[in-house]
Write a structure and sequence with these properties.
This protein is mostly helical. The protein is built from 17 helices and 2 strands. A hairpin with a 2-residue loop joins β1 and β2.
Length: 439
């Protein structure tokens, strides 16, 4: 990556002689980056997400321990520390918790947008055969959990807004559990789980935009739309400077933040305007950003979000927080609704002849993956923070209990079922290992 950034600086400064001297080196590096990168992108993604899942577990445990220790008050005060960023009369003043949820999570959704665009244009979602099975599975995994939560909370206007909480999937946790089984898991099954999670993320973005947006500021919304429109124009004109997209993207985020629409949507919208290819066959701006941001999101942003949002104090928790309609709706929705919804829709799609099972998988292994989609964790906590942030009644503890219980049950059951499904299969040698290539 350093070579690409230095070359970009030479291009900007006009050091043509240096560029010519690098000619052959650059062409070889560019070939490796553009040709090998698509082949290894999925494996790199899986490695990052699975190892990040360990950090998420650690962050969650630390948050729970701190929340139930003498440090609990300090933990709450830390999250309430206000931070202000201002330029003249224009400024943003928010506590640390909201900077994490509105600011850093916008970067997370920006990365999601980059991944979705790449997968649709040239990845595993670029053809009908590749996308129909995970798309239908994700649809079932969205409808049934939401219906289960609604059934538990029907007729209660104070809690019904949380219907989308159990419909989310935490890709880092789910892939982390899947990776515990090693090389016995077919790559097709890993791709299937990743694709379902991508569609889940798209569904979450749509839900946030439609159902969790209030008190709209028309002026700010129009300003943000103009910013996104200008990025589209720049893309069409062949502008590839990452700094241009970053600068206008920050302005768009500020406008969306002030508009009443959740600021994380700005990250996804801006990501869709970043060019995947260049006219001069140079390095892909989208891939550069995706490669650079992924470690920061996996190893810092998501664990920080987990630490800030997973802390549940068990002192004084009443029965309603443990077995009330909110916690039960979320836990049952994640553990029961997800597995039945995903597997049921996948089974129906295959039986109708619209798609086939992922290569190398069986019905038992697909059911195990369906169980893993019930690990909602960070995404469910995030949607929960939006669903009840304007409510007159505090459902924070119940939401966190429901998400933790449902996610833990799904992870445990999914791992045990998949382990049994693959226990008779030998470990496979990754492609390229005989040639000394690291997958």
């Amino acid at each position: 990556m350093l070579m690409f950034y230095i070359y970009d600086l030479f291009d900007e400064w006009g050091f043509d002689s240096v560029k010519r001297g690098w000619g052959s080196t650059w062409r070889r590096a560019h070939f490796v980056y553009e040709e090998v990168m698509p082949v290894t992108a999925l494996k790199n993604f899986l490695r990052l997400e699975s190892s990040a899942g360990v950090l998420l577990v650690v962050a969650t445990i630390v948050a729970l321990l701190v929340s139930n220790s003498p440090l609990a008050r300090l933990y709450e005060q830390l999250l309430d520390v206000p931070f202000t960023v201002a330029l003249g009369d224009l400024g943003v003043n928010k506590p640390l918790l909201l900077w994490i949820n509105d600011g850093l999570m916008a970067v997370f959704f920006f990365l999601i947008g980059l991944e979705v665009k790449r997968e649709i244009l040239e990845g595993q979602l670029s053809s009908r055969d590749q996308l129909i099975l995970p798309a239908t599975g994700a649809l079932g995994g969205f409808i049934l959990p939401a219906a289960i939560y609604a059934a538990f909370n029907w007729g209660n206007p104070a809690t019904i807004d949380g219907w989308a909480i159990p419909a989310a999937t935490d890709i880092a946790f789910a892939l982390g559990v899947l990776m515990l089984l090693g090389n016995r898991v077919p790559i097709g099954l890993k791709m299937f789980l990743t694709s379902i999670a991508i569609f889940d993320d798209i569904g979450a973005i749509v839900v946030i935009a439609i159902f969790y947006t209030q008190d709209l500021s028309l002026f700010a919304l129009i300003a943000g739309s103009v910013g996104v429109g200008s990025l589209v124009v720049l893309n069409r004109l062949g502008v590839t400077r990452i700094s241009v997209y970053a600068t206008i993207g920050i302005i768009v985020w500020l406008c969306v933040l002030k508009s009443g629409v959740h600021a994380t949507l700005a990250g996804f919208a801006v990501a869709c305007t970043v060019p995947l290819r260049t006219r001069d066959d140079g390095p892909s701006p989208l891939r550069q950003l995706e490669h650079s941001l992924h470690p920061w999101v996996a190893y810092m942003i998501l664990p920080l979000f987990a630490f800030a949002n997973a802390g549940v104090s068990f002192s004084g928790i009443d029965a309603d927080a443990l077995i009330g309609p909110v916690s039960m709706g979320i836990a049952v929705g994640l553990f029961v609704g997800k597995q039945l919804g995903v597997f049921g829709f996948v089974w129906l799609t295959v039986k109708l002849g619209l798609a086939s099972l992922p290569h190398g998988s069986t019905w038992r292994s697909v059911y195990g993956v369906a169980l893993l989609t019930g690990i909602g964790f960070t995404m469910s906590l995030f949607i929960g923070s939006l669903a009840f942030e304007r409510g007159a009644f505090d459902h924070l503890a119940a939401t966190r209990v429901g998400v933790l219980v449902g996610s833990i049950l799904s992870a445990t059951a999914g791992y045990l079922l998949l382990r049994r499904a693959f226990e008779s299969q030998p470990h496979t040698v990754p492609a390229g290992a005989k040639e000394g290539i690291t997958p």
